[in-house]
């Protein structure tokens, strides 16, 4: 098994592929995670003796690796029992995950928010799988208690589905600090029959739900009719579509509401010109600087296009390691490298025109 793994590991590296995929901790959704994992695996395997079997356990290998190594073993009664037990555990885990996802999703679904239970269930299943991947069985609370996988996955998924609701419904207009109270009002609204629906009944139902959660109502947290009325108005308000015609009776192509709103955005040709200039600038910078100077300038000024301010020097040092696989330089070293690079660029007229 060790021989098979080392041959696979070497072949993967020689082919220029990431060896992080050989680990169960491989996670394509978390930026920078796989680069760190690969460096740790390479460092561990280069340092540890090849005969040390425990190194394979520390790697936390992927299911594919285990399946391939199990296939190399002689089939015994003990091995068969272990494989059957793994299948039973996987089956139980999958059933529990789907039941929990169904429970969370259907409690999160709402007519007033236009949140579909099936869509919510799909999101929760993704959160559950991520939670299983992130779960650390060695973690202990401040009181020294172990956190069970089901507790961690369920709690994390509940929190993330609320974030998903916040960004995929009318709640984008509600402050996050009011998230819990808004969802209680939503639950109260959805639980009342339409012909009995009024602000007073929604308020009473919301306070009933709050009492069940908190145990007791106080003057500070009790829902008032005014608060519930404002929240329901926000949640049930209709939108005006910008493509809606301003004057339907106008002959010819009617003017839309969106066309009547002034737009200060730059024209398309100016955007293209700006992008083209940036590409020329980056090409010129790479041509004039050493590899390290180029990397520092790129990370400090061009790493995140949405960020209008330069990256902090300490952040640049960390990104040199995670993005380019370089050394961990001190803040002062980064400052000196940046200073030398900028001095070079000041001497180049083309760079001055573009930047």
TrEMBL record:
PANTHER family: RNA POLYMERASE SIGMA FACTOR RPO, RNA POLYMERASE SIGMA FACTOR SIGD, CHLOROPLASTIC. This is Uncharacterized protein. It comes from marine sediment metagenome.
